[in-house]
Write a structure and sequence with these properties.
Carbamate kinase; eight-stranded mixed beta sheet; four-stranded antiparallel beta sheet; 20 strands; binds aspartic acid; single chain; binds adenosine-5'-diphosphate; binds magnesium ion
């Protein structure tokens, strides 16, 4: 007998019929002799709707109260799914994040899991009950409810799989695996049989929301056997693992897009040593993550520095810099959230020169302007206007189509 953790996303539990479908997947696994812990997301767009409800009442609600509110979506889907399993005649118990032992730090809205005290889950499993756990949440040292950040139910599932030493962690979603690009955007994207943790981590961090990036990081650290598959199709999915078996795999693994970013440009900065240090240490002290950075060549003893942050940090970053204008000394800040980052990812890129040139050529042929560029050994990212982002993903994917299909 083995232990299987199964996670079901919002679309998979969106209505009564789909909850019954999920209940069948869970009970079929249980019937086959396995122990099952299922982690559920909130139904459909519930989390977005709850955010809208809060904004109607108080657009500046505290993060603590937001977490109190947002955690309720998962409680609803879990209770309903447990009821569906009861109706099928199987032993089941649903647990909230705190009942399941999720202890997090205090970072409301984006809390990190410190540990999972899994005694209650183990006791229930020993009684041969199916355990249903609310994704995306835990409690902090004040016993307040915290949430793990959007898409965080994947991370809840992987944490449970790691702590209980599960044989398999299945992430059921609305596509039947991980593709070379979002299949909703790129119809001829190729489904991958397997992908390495490192490549998936890069894709997820660059915006491929099919897996929460922290779930991939954790699966790698605890060597969790991870699979992404569809709750609708019954087809085999994509395995995410340390080493893939394909002998000569393609040197690029996918194209990703991230619209959740903003660009700030500090114009007319003093061209003196220590300016970059002042700017970025100020942001770091205030927990603002900076991604792409571009500095212009100095002219007339001034220079410009542009950088990107996540959309949610844009206003705070702008305010911090304005407030410190007397010590940092610049002319003005130009801010835009009409930008998106499009990236190509692949571990084999380092041995294959010309990936960036080919990507830029595809964008040039499509008349898409590049605002910023950033490269590493396994990715090339460009910043483009948000209205060009989807087209950019398509033309880049088309340009590398042969590589994605193993023709090179
Ligand atoms: P869930 O609610 O099940 O967690 P998400 O919406 O978070 O589902 O993630 C699944 C979605 O991720 C898919 O519907 C797809 O549009 C998107 N996606 C983005 N990039 C990829 C990719 N490379 N492969 C598969 N899906 C992707
Ligand atoms: N319901 C949460 C969200 O929409 C968590 C998740 O689905 O993973 O972000
Ligand atoms: Mg998700």
């Amino acid at each position: 007998m083995s232990l299987i953790v199964q996670k079901f996303g919002g679309t998979s539990v969106a209505n009564a019929e789909r909850i019954c479908n999920v209940a069948r997947i869970i009970t079929d696994t249980y019937k086959a002799g396995h122990d099952v812990v299922a982690v559920l997301s909130a139904q459909g767009d519930t989390t977005d709707e709850l955010i809208e409800k809060a904004a109607e009442i108080n657009p500046n609600a505290s993060k603590r109260e937001m977490d109190m509110l947002l955690s309720t979506g998962e409680q609803v889907s879990c209770a309903l799914c447990a009821m569906a399993i009861e109706a099928l005649g199987y032993p089941v118990v649903s647990l909230t994040g705190w009942q399941a032992g999720f202890r997090t730090n205090s970072g409301y809205g984006n809390a990190r899991i410190k540990r999972v005290q899994a005694d209650r889950m183990r006791t229930e499993l020993d009684k041969r009950r199916i355990v249903i756990v609310t994704g995306f949440q835990g409690i902090n040292k004040l016993d307040d409810i915290t949430t793990l950040g959007r898409g965080g139910s994947d991370t809840s599932a992987v944490a449970i799989a790691a702590v209980l030493g599960a044989d398999l962690c299945q992430i059921y979603t609305d596509v039947d695996g991980i593709y070379t690009a979002d299949p909703r955007l790129v119809p001829n994207a190729r489904k991958l049989e397997e992908i390495t943790f490192d490549e998936m981590l890069e894709l997820a961090s660059l915006g491929a929301q099919v897996l929460h990036n922290r779930s991939v990081e954790m699966a790698k650290r605890y060597n969790v056997n991870l699979e992404v598959l569809s709750s609708f199709s019954g087809q085999p999915g994509t395995k995410v693992k340390e080493v893939v078996q394909t002998m000569e795999k393609s040197y690029i693994s996918g194209v990703a897009k991230d619209k959740n970013i903003a660009r700030l440009a500090l114009v007319g900065l003093q061209d003196t040593p220590g300016i970059a240090y002042k700017v970025f240490s100020l942001l770091a002290r205030n927990h603002i993550n900076v991604d792409i950075i571009l500095q212009s060549i100095g002219r007339d003893s001034t220079k410009d520095i542009s950088f990107t942050v996540s959309k949610g940090d844009m206003e705070q970053a702008q305010k911090l810099l304005e407030d410190n204008k007397s010590s940092i000394r610049f002319d003005h800040i130009d801010v835009s959230d009409n930008v998106a980052k499009v990236s190509i990812v692949g571990a084999g890129m380092v041995n294959n020169p010309g990936v960036a040139a080919k990507m830029f050529e595809a964008l040039y042929n499509a008349g898409i302007n590049i605002n910023m560029i950033s490269t590493s050994e396994i990715k090339v990212s460009v910043l483009v206007h948000i209205t060009d982002a989807d087209r950019a993903v398509r033309v880049i994917h088309d340009r590398f189509y042969d590589e994605f299909n193993g023709e090179r």
